[in-house]
Amino acid sequence: MRNFKGTREAFAAAVMDMAENDARVMVVSPDSLKAMRATEFGETYPDRKRGGVFGWHREQPHIPPYLAPQECGCHVDARALLLRAPDGGRLALEMVDSPFAFSALPYTPQQLEQAAHVEELPVPVRTVVTLCGAMRGVGGIDSWGSDVEEAFRLSGAEDREFTLRLII
Predict the structure, then answer these.
(1) Three-class DSSP labels, 5-19
(2) Residue-wise pLDDT tens digits, 117-143
(3) Distance between CA 110 and CA 62 in Å, rounded?
(4) In a domain, 59, yes or no
(5) How many separate domains does the chain show?
(6) Separation CA 107–CA 79 (nearest Å)
(7) Which candidate in 12, 53, 102, 134 could, as Cys together with 156 as Cys, close a disulfide (CB 3.0–4.6 Å)?
(8) CA distances from 9 to 4, 29, 114 (A)
(9) Tell me, what CATH number does 56's domain have?
């Protein structure tokens, strides 16, 4: 571990790019239906959204059948998100100034990171909604060994904020 002395800018310049600028909300129901007004075609990321279609889309929170569990399910350019619980409860989030990115999954990022295989994930008990004011791209332009292009990176040196309207 390195020790840093100096300004916040010097520290930020020394650390890696950020993955996302986010907030997390946990909803009790694991089988919430999410409806979104966003760019959608499966997952979309800042550098992986050309095939996406903007509009209202619906889906159950899930993880794709990847070989190993990992961060997934991002939807970029969202204007609104509506979660509906089986008991009729609703939680709505709307953009205020600019579109946002989000994921709504049945697991926390820590649970996905700790599981080497899907079978190691626990039975879902909640929907974990991650709201992002900014999201780093995934890279892999010519192969999955490629880093993210400069235009799709998030600098740790910049202040970021985002505002959403919450409707219960």
Answers:
(1) CCCHHHHHHHCCCEC
(2) 999 999 988 888 888 877 777 776 665
(3) 16
(4) yes
(5) 1
(6) 23
(7) 12
(8) 11, 41, 32
(9) 2.70.98.10
Minimum mean pLDDT among 3-12, 16-25, 88-97, 123-132: which range? 3-12
Q: Tell which residue, 56, 88, 89, has the closest CA to residue 75.
A: 56
**Biggest alpha carbon distance in the chain?**
53
Name, in order, each residue with C-beta under 8 angstroms of 98's C-beta and a sequence gap of 6 or more. Answer: 133, 162
Residue 111 pLDDT grade (very low, low, confident, very high; cuts 50, 70, 90) = very high
Is 33 inside a domain boundary?
yes
Alpha helices per DSSP H over the chain: 8-14, 109-114
DSSP notation for 120-137: GSPPP-SEEEEEEEEE--
Whole-angstrom distance, CA of residue 72 vs CA of residue 105: 8
